[in-house]
Amino acid sequence: MKAPEMIEITHVDKWYGTFQVLKDCTTQVAKGEVVVVCGPSGSGKSTLIKCVNALEPFQKGDITVDGVRVTDPKISLPKLRARVGMVFQHFELFPHLSVLDNLCLAQQKVLGRGRDEAMAKGEALLKRVDLAAHARKFPGQLSGGQQQRVAIARALAMDPIAMLFDEPTSALDPEMINEVLDVMVELAREGMTMMVVTHEMGFARKVAHRVIFMDRGEIVEDSAKDAFFNTPHSDRAQQFLSKILVH
């Protein structure tokens, strides 16, 4: 039996002024599914996933998350964003707060958890991403890979129903990439619903169920992982793969 859709994107159009950045984008992500979104720079990948948790407004179409329309004026955007965790290219941690306090702040402010409960959750998640020893440090004292793992733990502290990743390894030194991807692979294997904008095709091959290929604001391909890598049907995707895959 097919899993229910967690994220549904239907005929979404978005403009920046007169420039159309998303053109009639339609796709869905089932509960527990991992979907990788790839394509050349400027193709609309990051904009698409930012529309999912209303970080970017869009002018036409519809997006629902777990049955709730993200454009519904009655929904609380902080609560929506707590349920749909987001990890950015740049870690977006609060530099003046300790690592543990970075994990506790939104739990207390948005979810209303007490300090002790938030700290216990934060400490457990830092242990999970192998950073328990760094709880009292400040973000600036950590490497880029460590900061990105803190950012993932911070998103998980909100008990999200889905996770969005916007090129989470592109700002990292090469030797730090795997430590972040390992955490993401583990999340995928545990059944977290994920949309991941990335150029890490090894990650896509390992854990993605589907691959969405975008170009010039359009979803050009939306297919099962093996079909995308072995028999992409568009010339544009074939060109992209020939440049990005190392043979």
Describe what this molecule looks like in 3D.
- This protein has 247 residues and is α/β, with parallel strands linked by helices.
- The protein has one domain (5-244): Rossmann fold (3-Layer(aba) Sandwich).
- Helices cover 37% and strands 26% of the residues.
- The chain contains nine helices and ten strands.
- It has helices at residues 45-52, 77-83, 99-109, 115-128, 144-156, 174-189, 201-207, 225-230, 235-244, and strands at 5-16, 19-30, 34-38, 60-65, 68-69, 84-87, 162-166, 193-197, 210-215, 218-224.
- Strands 6-7-8-3-9-10 form a six-stranded mixed sheet, sandwiched between helices. A four-stranded antiparallel sheet has the order 2-1-4-5, with helices on one face.
- Strand 1 (5-16) and strand 2 (19-30) form a beta hairpin.
- The longest helix is centred in the last third of the chain and has 16 residues, at 174-189.
- This is ABC transporter component.
- Belongs to the ABC transporter superfamily.
